[in-house]
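S.,

As promised, the 2-oxoglutaric acid run. Input:
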Amino acid sequence: MSAVSQTKTLKSGVTIPVFHTDNPARSTFTPEELQYYRDNGAICISGVFNQNDLAAIRKAADDLLDYCRPFLIGKPLLEIEKGQVEGHLVVRKIQPVVDAVPMLLEISRDQRIIKRAAALLNDQPILFEDKLNYKPPLVGSDFPIHHDWGYWKGHDSSLTNLLSVMIFFDDATEENGCMRIYPGSHKMDDYPLNGPVIADGVLKREDSLPVPCPAGSILIFGCHTVHCSDPNFSSKPRRALILSYHEASLGDKYDLRNGPGRECAKLWYAAFDIAVAAVRTGEAWERYRRTDDSHHAKWWNAGLERGVEYART
Ligand SMILES: O=C(O)CCC(=O)C(=O)O
Ligand SMILES: [Fe+2]
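Predicted complex:
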């Protein structure tokens, strides 16, 4: 069954429900939930992941950080926060993630997600994008006013009906930078863009609705739904995994979105490790340098050089 477990009334009088499920395995929507999604372009359902699931997802998020260590500016997969904590670089976001940690691939195929995404896409969902936003304490930065379609539309004109499932494994509150959405924005004609984001002055930040989501909940939103989030100056993390899907009828577009970056990251990471080991054991690292002038060689050599530099500091 489903019931609204939390409401919040803003000054404007708009109410944001968080629908709660006490039967996560059912993975379908009530007519009320479906209507809410169609009207607003986003819906939050709490109680989808239990405490055991959350422990496993938190471990996967830590494993992913370990996979990406050491944190370096310019390293593939990583976005680093501008602010540092006690002189250390802090990870803002990692993308893509399912290659690196098997548990994250499993979640992207979890029936609690897949069945709900299928119900809203009217087709089987195929993974298109996967990222983990760490929104770390004290220095977690904001996200600009945008819809994800602004980032995706250049790939393929058939990609018009994607949705994202955001899995919260920390409580997301107004204090630690919860998502903020513009209800109904998915029904608007094209907003003027500046690059991938909505152009300055078109929408006001204060008109967005904060959507606090408790750990274990999912926020589903369409690729045309405008959203943003505030910085995290609090002492608590606001981590979330965001999985985006398109309809199976389009084929598989994962490589269109991730292919080149994924290949380059694999080469860079492998070369980095080889160079670090070579420098530390006194082996001549230069023998690993590639001399062809291919795109792959460029990424391989960049990883090698960064590894040498890192091992020597
Ligand atoms: O994590 C957030 O607060 C927003 C993330 C987002 O909108 C994105 O990564 O496209
Ligand atoms: Fe987004």
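The mean pLDDT is 93. The chain has two domains: 2-252, 258-312.

- D.
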